[in-house]
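Below sits the subject:
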Amino acid sequence: MSDPETRKEAGPPPLLAVAGLDKSYPNGAERLTILREATFAVGTSESLAVVGPSGSGKSTLLNLLGLLDVPDRGSIRVEGREITLLSGDAAAAYRRDKTGFVFQDHHLLPQCTALENVLLPLLSDRSKTTAQDRDRARGLLDRVGIPEKENSFPDRLSGGERQRVAIARALIRDPLLLLCDEPTGNLDQTAGRRVVDLFLELVRERRMALVMVTHNLELAALLDRSLGLDDGRLRPVQTGGATTE
């Protein structure tokens, strides 16, 4: 009779699974190692903070997850699918359809209204948007709390409002992964807390996975788990008085 442990059915794979990720860049006659054997997983409706000082490789990690760069070694699986093998049109389709990016600088187009900025990702594979698209964009602006700002240009919005437009824009294509690079870096602590709270609500509602890189341990403590990036390696860190892994 077989061991009961061997009869257990494997559960579904985590939404995001990273294993043995290495990345380095040329540095004169040598190579500068940025990531060493990075390994972690993030499940559906789960959030992960990656903390560390400027230059520690946090943005590099996000770029790898979003296929803006490729690792030297290692595996990145999304819903069990190996994405590091994608290239060309397949990689572009993954970035377009599966990932949403939110940056420290909102990168809104100044000549476009809030509504038009939210709609921009839809124009990557079509020539114009539809009335249904616009209704969906309005719904997202409502969800992030600024429905009355749809016709406002970025220079008429506060920093927190511009970041909320950027969040709505990142969600317009229903991504699986929300990748956030210091998204509260230009906000005060109160506005930053509101943005992170909104991220967590949206991740649960829309069944995404969130990876947020930040240097702010207080805000990182709001997420489900935190890892620190130091000397290219990911390690458990203390946030809010509790060690997280």
Summary: The chain is about 30% helix and 30% strand. The first helix runs from residue 58 to 65. Helices lie at 58-65, 88-98, 114-119, 131-143, 159-171, 189-206, 217-220.
